[in-house]
Amino acid sequence: MRTTTKSESIPVRSSAEVVSVRHLVRRWAVELGFTLVEQTKIVTAASELARNMVDYGGGGTMTVEALEEDARKGLRLIFEDQGPGIPDIDMALRDGFTSGSGMGLGLGGSKRLSNEFEIRSAPGEGTRVAITRWKGAA
Amino acid sequence: MERIPILKMGRFLLVSIQVDMDDRTAMSLQDDLTERIVKDRAKGVLIDISSLDVVDSFIGRMLANTAAMAHILDAETVVVGMQPSVAITLVELGLSLKGVRSALNVERGMELLRTMREDSDSMDAHDHEE
């Protein structure tokens, strides 16, 4: 059974708050005993998704959750905005696809850096992305 | 917003990024470096990122753009000190930074800049002979 042992939410509305996201996720990853590479991967994924919310979603909220499932521990990050939403999610996940000025690596890249990736979005209904990394997972 | 200091050493510019930059700070560093290359007639730029524990696609793109702009302005760029965990993550993210020269540390980076500069200076001299 999967349980959330604790959680915390922060607003993400500016590029300065994207830096705060990186610091918060780093702190939780260190607390959970993630290796340096695991920390770097989830912090980088968080940075990409937080920036997406600021650049395309009009800002939003990130929630970080510490997870336990049987003997394993993990970190789950949820990014929610009330922005215009993504009309074509498959397209948005493709590397190099961008509707703005970025490189188009944000969604696909953060998916590769995570063990689990969920996205829910519809035009006019905002976007919700959740990623999970388990400690000790490849 | 913080501003990253740029040091001049002979014909080279040195930057050591010691803070976790937000996007605006990264953009202003790119602009400042480009301006300083012209103003100081710099022939090389060394960017030390050994203190950075995260390089995401935005900062990666800033490094690549800076190197590309410097190249057009006749200066070489070397990025030094990337942490192994950052390199692993960048590749998985999908950013290979192919156009960016790199070196292990500042000392090797300076050597590389000097060698690159000598090569291009001797090519210039050769051009004049013809």
Q: Which structural class is indicated by helix and strand composition of chain B?
A: alpha/beta
Helices of chain A, by number, come to 4
- Gyration radius of chain B, rounded: 15 Å
The total count of helices of chain B amounts to: 4
What does this entry show, briefly?
Chain A has 138 residues and is α+β, with helices and mostly antiparallel strands. Helix content of chain A is 36%, strand content 33%.
Topology:
The complex is a heterodimer of chains A (138) and B (130).
Chain A: E1 2-12, H1 15-31, H2 36-56, E2 60-69, E3 72-81, H3 89-93, H4 106-112, E4 116-121, E5 127-134
Helix pairs in contact in A: 1-2, 2-4
Chain B: E1 6-9, E2 12-16, H1 23-39, E3 44-48, H2 57-72, E4 76-80, H3 84-93, E5 101-103, H4 106-129
Parallel strand pairs in B: 2-3, 3-4, 4-5
Antiparallel strand pairs in B: 1-2
Helix pairs in contact in B: 1-2
Give an account of the 3D structure.
Chain A has 138 residues and is α+β, with helices and mostly antiparallel strands. Helix content of chain A is 36%, strand content 33%. Chain A has a five-stranded antiparallel β-sheet with strand order 1-2-3-5-4, with helices on one face. Chain A starts with a strand and ends with a strand. Chain B is α/β, with parallel strands linked by helices. In chain B, 52% of the residues lie in helices and 17% in strands. Chain B has four helices and five strands, in the order ββαβαβαβα. Chain B has helices spanning 23-39, 57-72, 84-93, 106-129; strands at residues 6-9, 12-16, 44-48, 76-80, 101-103. Chain B has a five-stranded mixed β-sheet, sandwiched between helices. In chain B, α1 (23-39) runs parallel beside α2 (57-72). The A-B interface holds A 14-16, 18-19, 22-23, 26, 36-37, 39-41, 43-44, 47-48, 51, 95, 102-103, 105-106, 108-110, 112-113 and B 20-24, 53-58, 61, 83-86, 88-89, 92-95.
